[in-house]
Amino acid sequence: MSIFSKFPRTFWVANTIELFERWAWYGFFMLFANYLTGSSDLGGLEFSQSQKGLIMGVGTGILYFLPVLTGAIADRYGYKKVLALAFAIYASAFLLFPQVSSFAAVFMMYIYLALGAALFKPVISATIAKTTTEETSSIGFGIFYMMVNIGAFFGPLITLLFKGDSKYIFYISAAIIMVNFLLLIFYKEPGRETKKAEGSLLHTFGEIFRNMGSIFKDAKFLIFLVIVAGFWTMYNQLFFTLPVFISQWVDTSVLYHFFDTYIPFVSANYSPAPGVLDSEFITNMDALYIIVFQIMVSTIVMKWKPLRSMMSGFLVCAIGMALTLVSQNVLFTMVAILIFAIGEMAGSPKITEYIGRIAPKDKKALYMGYSFIPVFLGNVFAGFISGNVYQIMSDKVMITEKYVVDKGLHIPAGLSTNAYFEEVARQVNLTPQELTNLLWDTYNPSSMWMVILAIGVIAAFALFIYDKVTTKSEA
Fold first, then answer.
1. What is the DSSP-derived secondary structure letter of residue 252?
2. 8 Å CB contact between 228 and 352
3. C-alpha torsion angle, residues 165, 166, 170, 171 (rounded to 10)
4. What is the pLDDT of residues 297-349, one digit of tens each?
5. HSE (side-chain half, CA atoms, 13 Å) at 119
6. Staple partner for 289: which of 84, 316, 341, 400, CB 3.0–4.6 Å?
């Protein structure tokens, strides 16, 4: 009997729901960093890197903290109702997002969107955990992670086609999330019937915080969560920092000319200017690699202990991400993303599997909620690094301004980010690409990736020590 036939129908329905949810999410999220910081003449809001880091770090951090509460609410009131509420919030937030442009309004709208995601996440993870066994969990979570990345791959590819008018980025995501209302018809809550609520909502939250108290007494588990936060700090740079870094510094002309010759559809639709490819299109290769290789990697690591797989994955991710500093050539970036993706495939699904294995059967959603605590911490830390640290060490806008001061140039006020850079290049008699190369050589903006490498190596080493200590104590 094929292992795939051992999964019930609800497992496949949940995976399909996850695919469309991730399609809607990444359709906007992969473009979000450049939307926040991009030049106004390209539809960007021209927020600073620090403002971007605050919105994406704190907002996404809240998204991953709330499942601690929403998971328990789902256990109490029923998965299907909570999913319906999540999709309603998602759709309304996507429709409202293009109507706001101030920092405060964008921040609040993103937090509202995060609430919808926070209601969704523990329910769908718990469904996968409840519809897999110890025999099928590794392949099951590998399939789940592959579905995540199918959605993550196609989402940006579709929205990038409409990047000329940024509001369509959000409207397309709203349309995609509405597909899940139809899929809910086929969703059956695994292993339970929806219970009637007993007592007040306040009583429910009291139970949640009592459960939190008991979890936080487990020092070993808390240490694990903090270590894994290091991995998520590094991982989130794929969305927070890498699209901006590629847009600002990486020479994508080699890849552009390849597509222009052999697949002109790509160069025609995923290029903001001749000789340049959209940074999100390149970053999106991570999802493509995972779609192609996830089942193979899951098959290789399925018999590995989760902690060993996580250690290996964390270290490989760190090396892959750090390779970005080697060159401005986009081919190096593509190889770096491939190496990063291999580490991600080995490590990330095992985190959820590990917590899913140790969770009590009647509290799967609650424990899956706790699996998001390190993601919450990782997003907050990643926001600081992609914001303040990136702005100081690598932001092309800040480095250009420093260069202008060093050279004593006088640039007219009121220019967009792109127009400002082009004027600087004109005044020093260089093309924009030549000025970019000069700034790269002079100010070394790639050095911030050493910070990311250090975080990944420390996380992998800490997990190695954790494994040794816990194995010894269990023995």
1. -
2. no
3. -10
4. 878 887 788 888 888 899 999 888 888 767 888 998 999 999 999 998 888 87
5. 19
6. 341
